[in-house]
Amino acid sequence: MVAVFNKELLSWYLITLKLKETLELGIPSSPNSGIQLTEFPEKQQQKLHQEPSLKITINENGEILQDESTSSESEWVISVGQKLEQALGDDVTSSWDKLSIFKIPHYLRDSSSDDKAYAPQVVSLGPYHHGKRRLHQMDRHKWRSLTHVLKRTNHHIRLYLDSMKEIEEKARSCYEGTISLSCNEFVEMLVLDGCFVLELFRGATEGFSQLGYSKNDPVFAMRGLMHSIQRDMIMLENQLPLFVLDRLLGIQLGNPHRKGLVANLALRFFDPLMPTDEPLTKSDRNKLETSIRNKSITTTFDPLSDQGGLHCLDVFRRSLLRRGAQSEPRVWIKRWSHTHRVADKRRQQLIHCVTELKEAGIKFKKRKTDRFWNITFKNGVLKMPRLLIHDVSFGLQQ
User: Phi and psi dihedrals of 363, rounded to 5?
Assistant: First the structure.
């Protein structure tokens, strides 16, 4: 900060400054006009030189400019240090390794004027879209599903609330950013949304009529809104931690610590969305239904081959990326130099468009498989699986 004085005040300013130095150092002043300074004691001179001096500059207009750059620089260094301490605290207290449910990056949001690609249109799951007005209509169906669960299991709601309170902190740490919901609001959301999801999962496997729903139910009847609900449930920002669903289902089945069954139910529920002509076999569905009804069974049909899951979207993604048999690497590649391998890798990454391949005489045929990597090329024929792309109730097959 710079202080500016008029020229007339220069002499008085200097006299005042000298008087102040004299009083601080205990040096008597002469009664004569002006200020005479005696020799400073050695310690007092050393102290005076160690203290930062006030720098004064007079501009061309005769104004005094007081330079306070020294104090400003000290404040700046202190400010930087405080920011570093805050960053260190954030790094220690934040559980980055526990995050599993993220928000859509801002640059993707800004590039699209329509949020239908990433925002739920029918039902909200989790805290990110909780309480949005356009999704309130589905909330009454969530409460209706919760009453079905309590009536069917003869449980008190307190059992579910207390169980979710035990894992509230763990569930919060899965979400990116600060969740504004209070403890009670967050726990209530976990119970309400979680039981709603489980009713959908179990209804798709056991039958909604077996769970006590009418065949004309507006939601739990596998028609109408069901496809839109399925679409919302595989959105990135619309997820519940899988361990929350495991706990809620375990309570319903009498074993709160049971794990692995929800992932199987999720695969059965999302089976219509799979880009394949090979849905779950009747034998697989029977095994899944039996594992739900027979509470003593500990091992269940697991198409994920012991792979864990973070949430329903992760389970759905893992089911699409199940690894098949891996071919052995070619031995002759090892005899190549590193330069040739890099150049060959770059050539392999070049993928020609279908038009160019057809012009070259390549023919295409569809394969009935659900493995994306199951692609073969033999005798000029490229066989690859069908990819089903759909949005809400509209489908496009390629």
Answer: -110, 150
